[in-house]
Amino acid sequence: MTIPLLEYFGKLKGKLDADADYLAQARWLMGAVLMQVDSAAYTVYFHKGRIIEAEAGAAPTGTEFALVGTEDAWGRLLRGELALPNALSAGLRLEGNLLKAAGNMHALCLLFSAAPGVVASEAAS
User: Fold this and answer.
1) What domain range includes position 10?
2) CA torsion sign, 109 to 59 to 55 to 13?
3) d(CA 121, CA 53)
4) CATH number at residue 15
5) How many domains does the chain have?
6) Mean local confidence (pLDDT), 87-113
7) Which residue has the higher pLDDT, 4 or 107?
8) Where is 32: in which H helix or E strand?
9) In angstroms, rounded to a whole number, what is the distance separating the alpha carbons of residues 115 and 111?
10) Which residue of 3, 22, 32, 113 has the fewest CB atoms within a 10 Å radius of its CB?
11) Given phi > 0 = left and psi -120 to 50 = alpha, else beta, which region is 14?
């Protein structure tokens, strides 16, 4: 199974833009964040927590930090089998500016807690 992160972040964008709690918690989440599944890289651009764009590949200007992991770990995170903190000890890891990543951890937890609903609707269609 290939993890379709671009589609997920596209669907999360609309869902999270309407979530006032997420936007309040994620107001400092800004810049490019690398999401890597095995050897496949994706960049998600944030502005005050809002997903501006998601694209395949690493950003040519670099990223703030990265979430890197196996397809299995990403799948378990996106299906809601693991919360982000648990996924970080089960095959997913943070790289890059860990201070910035830690400062945005609550926002990232909220972002990925919204994923199971998106994954379920993706599986149903």
Assistant:
1) 5-124
2) positive
3) 21
4) 3.30.1050.10
5) 1
6) 95
7) 107
8) strand 31-37
9) 7
10) 113
11) alpha
